[in-house]
Structure formats: C-alpha cells, structure tokens
Amino acid sequence: MNIVTLCGYLGNHWENNVKAETKEEEWFARNTLAISKAWINKKGQRVEQTSWIPVVVFGKNAKTAVNYTTKGSGFLLSGELITEIYQVTDETTGEVKNKQSWQVVIKQFDLKASNNKKPMDTDEVQEEDKEKEIDIAYYDKNGNEIPQQTQPA
C-alpha cells in the first residue's frame, strides 16, 4: 500500500498549466511542501530542520490548489509516493550514472487554517469570502471521481 499523508506549508507559488485553453484532464500544478521539526540538542539549543517535499496535483484538484492557495499556505495532503530512475552522463568522464527522483502525487487535500489561504488574485479577503465554500474533487486510484465534499474557506 502506497499512502502518504503530509501536513506543512507551501514553499512556492504553484508552477502550473491551469488555463482555459488547456483540457481539464491535462491540468497539473507542482510545488514543494515545507515540513519542519524542532528539538533541543544536548547543548540546550533549539534546532530546527525543514524538509522540502516535491508535490504534484492533477485535474480539478490542480485548479482548486492554484486558485485557493499560495506560497506559505497551510496544506494537508494525502497521496502516493512516486519514484523515477533516470540516467545522467557525466560530461567530463562520460560515465553514466543512475539517479533517482521522487515526488508525492496528491490525491486529496485540505486547506489548513492559515493567514494566506485567500485566492491568489485578491489582495484582501472580503468578509463575504470568509463564508464561501471551496469544492474539492477527490479521485480514486483508477481516476474515478469520488463524490465531492466541501470545506469552508
């Protein structure tokens, strides 16, 4: 079973192709999720470590993510860890090496409470916008849509 659940903050603005002229099934959005942990070391000093997790989301969920989250937004996701192996040739030695990359493919997500959860195209959240609901599409592993749920903005 390949299920990943992560909670953190978006590290960047979305890199995406969500446009009116692009077919919905081709929409995607990429970002990184910052996940931090902190502890006190043996010297009594606070130490913080941040991991940057590459994430990608497709379809209607990509549009929702792009429209309602931005850099710094709180983000809770469930998805699948995907790894890819590719080859790189060293330019100086000609040696071919195998490299591995990975990312989390987002299957569903929730917007965490955050000061930055407003749509990207507005400067201020209007009072009436606080009551607006956000439609989030959920898909099973075969790409079939699961009945939609809503969450207050």
Automatic annotation (TrEMBL):
Keywords: DNA-binding. GO terms for biological process: DNA replication. Coiled coil: none annotated. The lineage of its organism: Bacteria, Pseudomonadati, Campylobacterota, Epsilonproteobacteria, Campylobacterales. SUPFAM superfamilies: Nucleic acid-binding proteins. This is Single-stranded DNA-binding protein. It holds the Pfam family SSB. The keyword DNA-binding applies. One of its GO terms (molecular function) is single-stranded DNA binding. PROSITE patterns: SSB.
